[in-house]
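ugh ok so i messed up the first submission bc i forgot one of the chains. this is the corrected input, ALL of the components this time, i swear. 1506 residues overall. if the numbers dont match what u have on ur side tell me asap before i send this to the collaborators (the ones from the other lab, u know who)
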Amino acid sequence: MELDIKLIDDNGKRMDGRSAEELRKIKIEAGVLHRADGSCYLEWGGNKVFAAVYGPREAIPRHTQNPLRAIVSARYNMAAFSVEDRKRPGPDRRSREISKVISEALEKVVLTEQFPRSAIDVNIEVLDAEAGTRCAGLTAAGVALADAGIPMKDIPVACAAGKIAGQIVIDLGKEEDNFGDADLPVAISPRTDEILLLQMDGHLTVEEFNKALDLAIKGCHKASEIQKKAIMDKYQSVKGAE
Amino acid sequence: MELDIKLIDDNGKRMDGRSAEELRKIKIEAGVLHRADGSCYLEWGGNKVFAAVYGPREAIPRHTQNPLRAIVSARYNMAAFSVEDRKRPGPDRRSREISKVISEALEKVVLTEQFPRSAIDVNIEVLDAEAGTRCAGLTAAGVALADAGIPMKDIPVACAAGKIAGQIVIDLGKEEDNFGDADLPVAISPRTDEILLLQMDGHLTVEEFNKALDLAIKGCHKASEIQKKAIMDKYQSVKGAE
Amino acid sequence: MELDIKLIDDNGKRMDGRSAEELRKIKIEAGVLHRADGSCYLEWGGNKVFAAVYGPREAIPRHTQNPLRAIVSARYNMAAFSVEDRKRPGPDRRSREISKVISEALEKVVLTEQFPRSAIDVNIEVLDAEAGTRCAGLTAAGVALADAGIPMKDIPVACAAGKIAGQIVIDLGKEEDNFGDADLPVAISPRTDEILLLQMDGHLTVEEFNKALDLAIKGCHKASEIQKKAIMDKYQSVKGAE
Amino acid sequence: MSIVPIIKRDYISKLAEQGKRIDGRRFDEFRKIEIETTVVNKAEGSARVKIGNTQVLAGIKMDVGEPYSDSPESGVLTTAAELIPLASPDFEAGPPREDAIELARVVDRGVRESEVVELDKLCLEPGEKVWIVFIDIHILDYDGNLFDAASLASLAALSTTIVPATRLEVGEDYQLPLKEPPISCTSVKFDNFVVIDPSLDEEEIADARLTVATDKNGDIRAMQKGLNGSFTKEEIQKVIRASLDNGREIKKQLSECTGK
Amino acid sequence: MSIVPIIKRDYISKLAEQGKRIDGRRFDEFRKIEIETTVVNKAEGSARVKIGNTQVLAGIKMDVGEPYSDSPESGVLTTAAELIPLASPDFEAGPPREDAIELARVVDRGVRESEVVELDKLCLEPGEKVWIVFIDIHILDYDGNLFDAASLASLAALSTTIVPATRLEVGEDYQLPLKEPPISCTSVKFDNFVVIDPSLDEEEIADARLTVATDKNGDIRAMQKGLNGSFTKEEIQKVIRASLDNGREIKKQLSECTGK
Amino acid sequence: MSIVPIIKRDYISKLAEQGKRIDGRRFDEFRKIEIETTVVNKAEGSARVKIGNTQVLAGIKMDVGEPYSDSPESGVLTTAAELIPLASPDFEAGPPREDAIELARVVDRGVRESEVVELDKLCLEPGEKVWIVFIDIHILDYDGNLFDAASLASLAALSTTIVPATRLEVGEDYQLPLKEPPISCTSVKFDNFVVIDPSLDEEEIADARLTVATDKNGDIRAMQKGLNGSFTKEEIQKVIRASLDNGREIKKQLSECTGK
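and heres the new structure output, hopefully the right one now
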């Protein structure tokens, strides 16, 4: 499966020059959309993602309401032009599964019991996709939720680790995802390291898995710092504008 | 684009022998369907169209109700066999757009505030299509609304003008539509000449546009006379039958 | 149409060795599913069918409720792998028609007026299909309804007759269905011989039709005996377990 | 699921006890049938049928396409029916529901199983190119008995269909090859009365419905029972007899109208 | 179908009587426009357009496919718009509704009828292989006037599109061949006031809408009236004049931005 | 979204505090598993798996078709699951919902990523003709833990699949080439208790779910966390250990049953 592609060179560098524990470049901006209650624009390597939050508002139709708490619905969507071969617009099985696991991860940290019968809608739009969009999307969603002032126990954050050319590395890039041995996207609540999302494809020994999980959590913490800075910047720019 | 087709001959006659300001033959019959509250059968050149009106009746489901007025919903539908190459049954993007602009045009003349929370449904079925079906359909719908006794400020009517072989002409036929330079369907309220529907495709100078708009309005008035006669005939035949 | 296939041999035997009035082997087991309120597993020749009944329970959404009686909804579904060439999952026009005629047949025998505003759902899953699945499914549904304790005037039952190689025979098999001259599936209420379901495709004289109808009814009675035995066996095994 | 006022049911039943129907017909009498062919131009064939106030238009389109792999030398027939909201306040726009599906399938089987269209004569290149025949049924006005109106309109439309070989550049136009069509007649039962060609009022109170298609030899070519009531064997035989009688008359009218 | 508080309508109308708009603009004045091209990498071309707070992203993808049978030597153009719930609490996920369909069709006609994309230069093998151009429009932030923002974003994206011939192994990459694009300007009418480039507040109280696309010669290339109000002939002429004036400015800005 | 009576949750939690489960099992103990293969005739392979009262049937169909353009020498695998209303009053007819999609995708990944089916041996003509393997999963009876039942049924069905080369006229029938399959084991967490192979009662009160597929070497081949609760790292390691232990036993039972 690895063909002639050399995912790690003789100096231990990955194809894009990163070391095993180095994240791709992450850029986060909070509060970028006018209409949404909270929003975020995020670039993570070649991924470009918007997230927008609406709510809490009354859940409609009524039969979707939970009398005890708010429902958090994430909707992950890829633009038709976000991938090499145009994707047909609208949800497919993959995006619906991702929407489900992201919704579940976010619901854990939102203080949903404060808003019975309500809906909190999180829209994630992937405009450019280059491996790791679910982690990028969830991380953007965390910032948008904070920007919307939704009460949360913590700001959720995600990062993947994986195995390429026999080594455990963080945050797989496109070729690493295609030709690597395993991918392990993880989302956590960074205050407690509780694991909110976890999926694994590929082949890892238990020992490798433990190492990869630790590395992914480490990546989550790094991304978390960038999230916090973005939220702070937005807050200060608003204060500054006052 | 004009190939070898001569849309206007040396005597200024169009392919079907009409002059620039001459409409195709229009035949209208009101009250042709038993079940509908109001109905109309219309032939306009090669176009054959039925329109049927149901309502006003309670709008369902409830959340579609407007507490202040009735909703007018037109549904324009082409029979699978109405065109050269069979059309797949059911609405497509084109028919949904036409349904929308016709609904909006009709709603302007119906006294909707008299029927809060109600729906007035206008069904337009195109059985034979030969250029100008939206104008034919809207004109038939006007008669069906009158036949149903729906209170209106005026009976809406439509006609197109366009440009072929460099000339502004009324009511484009099939080849004229395919090989002409511009098409301008217009619907008006004939008492006031208010414009209810207007679309334009093609290429017109501002001067040409003004001329075409005037011509389309002139055509609307001619079609309006035929509408009124059809309604009168129906009324008299009912009176006569008494 | 009959090609070289000899549907009846010189000794009057059919391709699978049956005589004209002989049914394929029928095996019925009641109460085979844990979750359903009533269930049945049925093998009829090469057909393998499950039926499960849920209800009576409140019909939702509300607007489907009938204030005077229960609605019986049968859903006939074929597994993708139940036929030679894989069938796309989900309902098609054929299965929706069969669901409709089975629903109507069952509704006649259920004492629906005892459960106003309720729904009784009958799910029929065909896992192996080999001619006669609608009769097999309806017969299984009858057992599942009885197993669920739904009050009925009678246990409905079905069987087909048809014409092959010029002869009227009972319960067509696969080749007989494909290359025969007529097929007549019939469902009855066995106590009264009232006909609940009847469809006919092919070509029969009136005389042949009468003969086929009698034969199908005879087959229904035979299948009815096997239904009753299955219900009795289930009842005794439950009693025995007490 | 409209709840028909009990008063209407009572009225129709009382009349039936006196052997009468609300529109004055005998139990075994059809309403007046009108058949008009070639009513639209773009279709290869078309017909408008009125049975009383019920009005149905069928149009035939033809195209060249691939045969099914299990019948490589045979044309393809496909039937669709739309219960468009033009025809009744109870019909809804949107994908066809159970009623429309049953209607299309019963008409389709009526045409297909009796081999009215000689599909084996519609092959252009075995396994590659055959004629596809599309029957599209539009209900214009609904006052009961759609099955017979739709079936008759389809047969009349097929009878006047010209295969558009010139347009599709596969030869000369010619008449669509057809065999004798069977005629479909529908009866309904309410209380214990059985009447043919039900009007909408009668359909609304009916417990059971039976459609029987018969041919000129008096043979049965298709049957379909509907609704959640039952028939006795005797009732079915009565329905068959009435279908044979009326079918013969309708066949005559169809032949006169289509010249076949 | 939100019922806009009467108080808002009154407020906007009162301002209008004094010749003012809520954001301080003149009746015939656009909001500030920002155009940014090549904003995403996977697309063959892309652009983000802001008109005030309204923000639209258009992306172009190209593929090789079959031409339509009635234009065998011509490339294929297809336009889709999604009113994704990211952009507004009133947009819903799911298949496109009437609003999104009208938007996509108006943008599509604007591009298609004015022949902006030279489809006749996108043929690879007549009747067999042509380029297919997909315009996909994503609304990111909705504060009124989607028609103009979507149309402008599509034009800007097309202007920067590179035909990916290398990737699809049919030659060398080259710039998508384009003609001068017409510029679309939308006005709305409320009470008897007509204003161009409506904000969301103005759209919500509007009775009628008119979109006019004009070219550099001052000619009209497309029009679309919307909403259930009417225009007089005079109002239409006023709208055309304002569309010509603003269109000229917007064209200049588009050229500067795309270098064409 | 049913609201489980608090009383049931309390009851199950209280038992758990005493180290017990409602059906008497240990926390790390599976219910009894039954595997029956070749249960339907029309399928190329099939299996019915019971885990306690949960009952799932998987059927395999194969056809000849085109490969994906990015893997021209590889067969195609596709997995579909239907949560048919036969199996539970909470399952609805209609297109698959999120739960069914996640189930199908997790089973699919389990089979695909671990390369159980040797797709590279299913090529007939590179780029032209390959075998397509359809896995269709029918839930017959739902009492919790569909993931493991569906996955095991799929593996057992694949193990008994005969490639129908004769029927499709591309050679002789042969056994579908397979590698060692990984075994999927699912645990759920409620309060702070983690139990394997949850029954429906336990699933209904569960906060978080974790599925782990392990192979005979004790390696991890797939994981999927679900539901809106969280796991600690320690809990995950505990789940992995229990999955390894149970997976080994289940693998043994599968081998005995399929003779492989």
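quick check: Chains C and A do not touch (no CB pair under 8 Å). that seems consistent at least. Chain C has one domain: 26-239.
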